[in-house]
Amino acid sequence: MFKPVIGLEIHCELKTKSKMFCGCPNNSDETRPNFNVCPVCLGHPGTLPVINQKAVESVLKLGLAINGEISPISRFDRKSYFYSDLPKGYQISQYKQPFVEGGGLKGVKITRIHLEEDTGALSHDKGNHTLVDFNRAGVPLMELVTEPDIKSGEEAVAFAKELQLILRYLDISEANMEKGQMRVEVNISLSQDNEMGTKVEIKNLNSFKAVKEAVDYEIKRQSEVLEAGEKIIHETRGWDDIKRTTVSQRGKEQAHDYRYFPEPDLPPLDLAEFNLRELKDSLPELPEEKRIRLSRNYGLTSAQADILVENSEAADHFEEAAKKLDKKKTAADYQTLFNYLTSDIFGLMAEKKIGIKELKFPPSGTAEVINLIGENKISSRIAKDVLKEMVETGGAPSLIIESKGLRQISDVGEIENVVKKIIAENPKAVEDYKKGKENALQFLIGQAMKKLKGQANPDILRKLFGDCLSK
């Protein structure tokens, strides 16, 4: 039986105002090619790099967040190779003394976190030309390397998603995979009887779906090769999104000898110069801490807490609204709030293609709707209409209800008259109900609700139908 042995290398562009070693803007939205460049990031002779302090602090924050060990002294190294997207002919990276070693996340041990500069971006036109845009060259790039503790594509995705969340919570990277701000590389081999197999690298996976599918495919491919009595080739492979397979790119015997040596233009960094205690104290509540607290304080399931944790702005909206619920709030009230937020409000936001920060009403408006439902002043049907109007106009729930005449009808006499009329108009449904068909009752209630424009108190309506039909 073969056992997968998987490690990840994850590159993330850091969110800084300027590039890693020069003053050029770090702007991923710049559409003019080769606009954010200067002699330093283009590697002109005689230019000297200056370390971006914010980038260093960002890596240290991540190291503290994953309980890594901060190196007392760290230094940069030159990684020498030739490629058309590398203007200097070398990349300033870290080899022997990274900023962070150790730590862990989602049960996976972390080997190291280091800092380097990104390369330019290549694009291929329809002819025989390749175009180079150096706007990205020199952007601060963090690389995190894990131990080979991962066993499946699902585990690889879980780790990468949690890292993405942490980067966003720390506000050090957008980590948008579609924009190339987070890139995943996988090292995978199959072991048998504690004997390690030959490692294969899969490069530049740019979506979580690609990560899972590439890992699962490669496990299957390597298993089939070994079961056929053949050997795994030590190579680099890529992921073909169309064929949904990994494809060979180059054998490792063709791999570069990077000839690392200490960067002569940059001194070693004494990390005691950075106030690590202050950085530690500045860390926000992290995703796992938030999950635990949301479940404990509001009775949410782990799956519900996950939904809010994945969108910190939604979590903030939920918690602010929860504070405004009636004083006698219960776990059921929190469930109602969660359901309306993540189903109705999220759905309306998706229709309008807006984020939660772009809502025209505050969390207290959401809470008011939930309170009105709890007080039997509006039905769930009316609540949906009110929320839709709130998203459109930003109006207060009570004013919308008043202006549109949406308040729930709780007058027993008025509802009873409608119930009797519906029963008289639908003898077939009445007969079906008396034969034990529960759907018939739902049909009758639906007809009454339609006549009452969804404004009847559903509890009163159901009771009156029960009373009238039992006579």
From TrEMBL:
<dbReference type="GO" id="GO:0050567">
    <property type="term" value="F:glutaminyl-tRNA synthase (glutamine-hydrolyzing) activity"/>
</dbReference>
<comment type="subunit">
    <text>Heterotrimer of A, B and C subunits.</text>
</comment>
<dbReference type="InterPro" id="IPR023168">
    <property type="entry name" value="GatB_Yqey_C_2"/>
</dbReference>
<dbReference type="GO" id="GO:0070681">
    <property type="term" value="P:glutaminyl-tRNAGln biosynthesis via transamidation"/>
</dbReference>
<feature type="domain" description="Asn/Gln amidotransferase">
    <location>
        <begin position="316"/>
        <end position="469"/>
    </location>
</feature>
<keyword id="KW-0648">Protein biosynthesis</keyword>
<dbReference type="GO" id="GO:0005524">
    <property type="term" value="F:ATP binding"/>
</dbReference>
<keyword id="KW-0547">Nucleotide-binding</keyword>
<protein>
    <recommendedName>
        <fullName>Aspartyl/glutamyl-tRNA(Asn/Gln) amidotransferase subunit B</fullName>
        <ecNumber>6.3.5.-</ecNumber>
    </recommendedName>
</protein>
<keyword id="KW-0436">Ligase</keyword>
<dbReference type="InterPro" id="IPR017958">
    <property type="entry name" value="Gln-tRNA_amidoTrfase_suB_CS"/>
</dbReference>
<comment type="function">
    <text>Allows the formation of correctly charged Asn-tRNA(Asn) or Gln-tRNA(Gln) through the transamidation of misacylated Asp-tRNA(Asn) or Glu-tRNA(Gln) in organisms which lack either or both of asparaginyl-tRNA or glutaminyl-tRNA synthetases. The reaction takes place in the presence of glutamine and ATP through an activated phospho-Asp-tRNA(Asn) or phospho-Glu-tRNA(Gln).</text>
</comment>
<dbReference type="InterPro" id="IPR014746">
    <property type="entry name" value="Gln_synth/guanido_kin_cat_dom"/>
</dbReference>
<dbReference type="InterPro" id="IPR042114">
    <property type="entry name" value="GatB_C_1"/>
</dbReference>
<dbReference type="InterPro" id="IPR018027">
    <property type="entry name" value="Asn/Gln_amidotransferase"/>
</dbReference>
<comment type="similarity">
    <text>Belongs to the GatB/GatE family. GatB subfamily.</text>
</comment>
<dbReference type="GO" id="GO:0006412">
    <property type="term" value="P:translation"/>
</dbReference>
<dbReference type="InterPro" id="IPR006075">
    <property type="entry name" value="Asn/Gln-tRNA_Trfase_suB/E_cat"/>
</dbReference>
<dbReference type="Pfam" id="PF02637">
    <property type="entry name" value="GatB_Yqey"/>
</dbReference>
<keyword id="KW-0067">ATP-binding</keyword>
<dbReference type="GO" id="GO:0050566">
    <property type="term" value="F:asparaginyl-tRNA synthase (glutamine-hydrolyzing) activity"/>
</dbReference>
<dbReference type="Pfam" id="PF02934">
    <property type="entry name" value="GatB_N"/>
</dbReference>
<dbReference type="InterPro" id="IPR017959">
    <property type="entry name" value="Asn/Gln-tRNA_amidoTrfase_suB/E"/>
</dbReference>
<dbReference type="InterPro" id="IPR003789">
    <property type="entry name" value="Asn/Gln_tRNA_amidoTrase-B-like"/>
</dbReference>
<dbReference type="InterPro" id="IPR004413">
    <property type="entry name" value="GatB"/>
</dbReference>
